[in-house]
Design a protein that fits this description.
The chain is mainly beta. The chain has two domains: 222 residues, no CATH class; 186 residues, Jelly Rolls. Helices cover 9% and strands 28% of the residues. The protein is globular. The relative contact order is 0.15. The N terminus and C terminus are likely disordered.
């Protein structure tokens, strides 16, 4: 009783508590497709063709994205880290591991705005000409053309470049690397060019995402927090602490009723919500019903939030009730978990599947579940036939069961197996990348390893969606290589770079170069000269020497 009271007090105060080590199967938060502007496409291994890209899709190894003319997209790969692709760019996720992220760009224009890279973590960027290894926070930009690849580092970032032949080379901060050719590439080094509109947009968008007001209520490490500011409000409820209430939802809306179930190769069945804000509230915390409205309760702040593909309880619908609600054949239903209710995982290793779990939850725990809190709430339970589950947008029946005997909790593996239509959250015609871009090999430090399909692969279409050959594997650089420059051509040795003055600019030179006022006309009366005393700075004696304020400090590119 005392322990429960203490946990309740921690929940109300928002005190940060440490969570236990996440078990196998919960240690990875998948990259999140967080923004799409314009036409963009998505492909997952096993699919027959490209599908429209959709926000809030969790990405896995083997996934590919392509942006059309005038489009761009964003992938959140960490609490303070983002990968963005400009128009006409194909970007792929090669590997997602607890301390290693491997991304490839076969054509186009992309950036990596990494505000934080934990110690021991590595981000690898594969291109047709070279592989770039990143272990430090910074801003990185890559442009992949037919024969030339350009890579720029900014904001203190530095990396290592590895070619198909030759030793790794260190890349310093504020540097541009130009790689010409793919078979026998040459490397040129230059000073980084000036910031352009793309760079400034990247900076501003990341600032907006990581400076969200909602971040004060949500555990650090949770993705998709920035968008909560736009679509809801925070309130404090004595029983649950800070809760977030979504705006602009339809009358009678309930959690996990407007979205799609897709098959994730790592987590199995995963919920993709239709709402732009539909990431954090559906993969962390719990939903509560307060004073006639639904609210998301993230619970007490914890040091290691744990991602879940969905926080629901699944049910097998009894034959009698499935007939009564108009569903033919076997049916499956689900409902959002309530405050303190455990999750029964349907993914992971033996010994983890089906065992009640509160990983990622630091609030009160209800161990003995007789009836789930929201199962009796009006139109909160959704049911679909097993044939319909995972085959497109949810078009299920919402109902309130008459008694708990009509809902049979699924306590182990999920009964529905996926098919090719379960791999993408959206279906329909979309754009495809050019064949020469989709089929380009890249240089990498490790081969791609796709997860085995849970179903028999169908015959390949006449025009395969993705047919990239195996990458050219090179040895990964040692960590010391990132800090010790390797022999290479000096700046500007190959080709022209933007003009730089021979000496740093001097204040006196700038004053001499400044335009001087025209002399007064002959006979004009001269105004009396004004003598102005030097202004004393706060806490400083007055002097005739100008002291620049913090605002005049030069900002690093």
């Amino acid at each position: 009783m005392k322990t429960l009271l203490l946990i309740s007090l921690l929940a109300l105060s928002g005190f940060a508590v440490a969570a236990e080590e996440p078990p196998p199967g919960t240690e990875i938060t998948p990259p999140r497709l967080s923004f799409v502007d314009g036409k963009a496409s998505f492909w997952r291994p096993g699919a027959q063709d490209w599908a429209p890209a959709r926000v809030n899709t969790p990405l896995a190894a083997g996934d590919a994205l392509y942006t059309g003319e005038g489009a761009n997209l964003e992938i959140q790969v960490g609490p303070r880290s983002f990968v963005r692709a400009a128009q006409n760019t194909q970007l792929g996720i090669v590997a997602v591991e607890p301390d290693f992220l491997q991304v490839k760009v076969t054509g186009g224009h992309a950036s990596l705005d990494l505000r934080r890279v934990p110690a021991g973590h590595t981000v690898e960027l594969d291109t047709p000409s070279a592989v770039f290894t990143i272990e430090h926070a910074g801003y990185y930009r890559v442009v992949v053309g037919d024969e030339v690849t350009r890579f720029v580092t900014r904001r203190g970032g530095h990396a290592t470049i590895s070619l198909a032949d030759g030793p790794p080379q260190a890349i310093s901060s504020s540097e541009e690397i130009v790689v010409r050719g793919t078979a026998s590439p040459s490397v040129e080094t230059y000073a980084a060019p000036e910031l352009d509109a793309w760079d400034r947009w990247n900076y501003a968008r990341t600032d907006y995402e990581i400076e969200a007001l909602s971040a004060r209520y949500v555990s650090p490490g949770v993705y998709g927090v920035g968008v909560l500011d736009q679509w809801g409000t925070w309130r404090v409820v004595p029983a649950y602490g800070a809760v977030w209430v979504p705006d602009r939802v339809a009358a009678g809306w309930a959690p996990y009723t407007t979205g799609t179930w897709i098959w994730d190769p790592y987590y199995g069945w995963t919920w993709v919500d239709d709402a732009p804000w539909g990431w954090a509230p559906f993969h962390h915390g719990r939903w509560v019903f307060v004073d006639g409205f639904w609210a998301w309760a993230p619970g007490p702040l914890i040091l290691r939030p744990v991602y879940a593909p969905a926080l629901v309880a699944f049910f097998g619908i009894a034959p009698g009730i499935s007939v009564r609600i108009g569903l033919a054949g076997p049916a499956v239903g689900w409902v959002a978990l309530g405050w303190g209710e455990p999750l029964r995982p349907w993914w992971g290793r033996p010994g983890f599947v089906g065992v009640p779990s509160w990983h990622g939850w630091a609030g009160p725990r209800i161990a003995n579940i007789v009836t789930y809190q929201h199962a009796q709430r009006t139109r909160a339970v959704v049911a679909v036939s097993e044939k319909q589950f995972g085959s497109g947008a949810v078009r299920g029946t919402r109902f309130s069961p008459a008694g708990p005997q009509e809902l049979q909790p699924i306590r182990d593996a999920h009964p529905v197996r996926p098919g090719p239509g379960s791999l993408a959250p959206a279906q329909g015609a979309t754009i495809r990348p050019p064949a020469k871009v989709a089929s380009r090999p890249v240089v990498a430090t490790r081969p791609a390893r796709e997860a085995p399909l849970p179903f028999k692969r169908e015959p390949a279409p006449k025009k395969p969606a993705v047919s990239a050959p195996a990458p050219r594997i090179v040895a990964p650089p040692k960590r010391a290589d990132a800090s010790v420059p390797s022999p290479r051509p000096s700046f500007g040795e190959k080709g022209a770079e933007r003009a730089r003055p021979a000496q740093p600019p001097r204040l006196e030179d700038l004053r001499r170069a400044a335009p001087r006022p025209a002399p007064p006309a002959a006979g004009a009366k001269q105004p009396p000269a004004k003598t102005q005393k030097p202004r004393a700075l706060p806490g400083k004696p007055a002097s005739g020497v100008f002291a620049p304020s913090a605002r005049t400090q030069r900002k690093e590119r």
